[in-house]
UniProtKB/TrEMBL annotation:
<feature type="transmembrane region" description="Helical">
    <location>
        <begin position="254"/>
        <end position="272"/>
    </location>
</feature>
<feature type="region of interest" description="Disordered">
    <location>
        <begin position="145"/>
        <end position="164"/>
    </location>
</feature>
<keyword id="KW-1133">Transmembrane helix</keyword>
<dbReference type="Pfam" id="PF02037">
    <property type="entry name" value="SAP"/>
</dbReference>
<feature type="region of interest" description="Disordered">
    <location>
        <begin position="44"/>
        <end position="108"/>
    </location>
</feature>
<feature type="transmembrane region" description="Helical">
    <location>
        <begin position="284"/>
        <end position="303"/>
    </location>
</feature>
<dbReference type="InterPro" id="IPR038872">
    <property type="entry name" value="Put_GTT3"/>
</dbReference>
<feature type="transmembrane region" description="Helical">
    <location>
        <begin position="315"/>
        <end position="334"/>
    </location>
</feature>
<protein>
    <submittedName>
        <fullName>8064_t:CDS:1</fullName>
    </submittedName>
</protein>
<feature type="domain" description="SAP">
    <location>
        <begin position="8"/>
        <end position="42"/>
    </location>
</feature>
<feature type="compositionally biased region" description="Basic residues">
    <location>
        <begin position="65"/>
        <end position="78"/>
    </location>
</feature>
<keyword id="KW-0472">Membrane</keyword>
<keyword id="KW-0812">Transmembrane</keyword>
<feature type="compositionally biased region" description="Basic and acidic residues">
    <location>
        <begin position="79"/>
        <end position="97"/>
    </location>
</feature>
<dbReference type="InterPro" id="IPR003034">
    <property type="entry name" value="SAP_dom"/>
</dbReference>
<dbReference type="GO" id="GO:0016020">
    <property type="term" value="C:membrane"/>
</dbReference>
């Protein structure tokens, strides 16, 4: 037996409770509340069925695909109406004005749904047209350029005017950035001071270790001088590794060089820093203190004589002075 909103008026309260429990509604409240609750549920279900039939007709005609959002909206509104009915504290029935308002709101819902369906259909057709036109534009325009805004108007993305692939452009940009970073790391005072120290250490080791062990001799004929048939003899020598066992000839000058010309100026550069950043390695302070320490100790202490046996003093003065000038110039440019 089908239940209609008009047949609810002749039902008793117990029958209305049974109907509400079958429909999954709340069975509490007065008879009027139960009747209104069941009536609104039946009307909302009829509206949903009518909308589904209209959507199926549209789908069969090939107009618009049905959407679940409309059904969810109608269900949520019907649930809100049920909550409003159950939330009345006095349990009185709604007046005829409120019933008329609910009917008018339901009619408005139908009109809004139809309007949204029409808007969706027009939007779908317009999207298809714009998609086809955009495909034609992409086929014609092979290059691209990002739109500029007011904030980054000075920064423009280079367009692919030469027809190069994007992966090759990315590789070129990566190599360019790496070269810029390499130039930034090489052309600074820190790298210059490290290079000077490595050069002085290489000169020290080359002069301290003698190459006096002859391994073999190679004779190379002289092809350029036709008159003399004599061949040039080249002696292949290896370094004397036994000097590593001698303290006075190798280890004492090396330790003096590392301590007085490397560690001591480095410590002073951390303590007394001429730059704004304190407790940081300063190439300017390092070069200045290296120059001062060697010039003050020259002729007064024995370690300078040990170092001078393998490194000329002009090389030390030139390295320290050039490092100080380079660091000072870099700090002036930074400020």
């Amino acid at each position: 037996m089908s239940i209609t909103p008009n047949s609810l008026r002749n039902k008793r309260k117990n029958e209305l409770k049974e109907i509400a429990s079958d429909l999954g509604l709340n069975t509490k409240g007065l008879r009027g509340e139960l009747e209104d609750r069941i009536r609104i549920h039946l009307e909302s279900s009829e509206i949903n069925k009518h909308d589904e039939e209209e959507n199926l007709e549209d789908v069969s005609l090939g107009k618009v695909t049905p959407r679940r959002s409309d059904r969810k909206k109608s269900r949520s509104r019907s649930r809100k109406d049920l909550k409003e009915i159950s939330s009345h504290p006095n349990g009185d029935r709604h007046s005829s004005d409120e019933e008329n308002q609910s009917v008018s709101s339901e009619s408005e819902i139908k009109v809004i749904k139809r309007e949204t369906l029409l808007e969706d259909s027009t939007r779908y057709t317009s999207n298809q047209l714009t998609f086809e036109s955009s495909q034609q534009e992409v086929a014609v325009n092979a290059t691209y350029r990002t739109p500029h805004t007011s904030e980054d108007s000075d920064i423009a993305e280079p367009s692919n005017t030469r027809g190069l692939p994007n992966d090759r452009i990315f590789r070129v940009n990566t190599v360019h950035d790496s070269l810029l970073q390499l130039r930034k790391n090489v052309s600074n005072a820190h790298t210059f001071c490290k290079t000077v120290i490595c050069l002085e250490l290489a000169v020290f080791l080359y002069c301290a270790i003698e190459w006096n062990y002859e391994v073999t001799s190679v004779s190379i004929p002289n092809f350029f001088e036709s008159e003399s048939n004599e061949a040039h003899i080249y002696h292949i020598r290896v370094p004397d590794i036994f000097i590593l066992l001698e303290w006075h000839r190798f280890w004492r000058p090396l330790i003096s060089f590392i301590f007085y010309l490397l560690l001591l100026p480095l410590g002073f550069s951390y303590i007394i820093n001429f730059e704004p950043q304190r407790h940081v390695y300063s190439p300017l302070a390092f070069s200045v203190f290296q120059y001062i320490i060697f010039s003050v100790s020259y002729g007064n202490f024995d370690w300078t004589e040990d170092v001078r046996d393998f490194i000329h003093e002009n090389l030390i003065y030139a390295g320290a002075g050039a490092g100080a000038i380079f660091a000072l110039y870099e700090s002036i440019l930074a400020n």
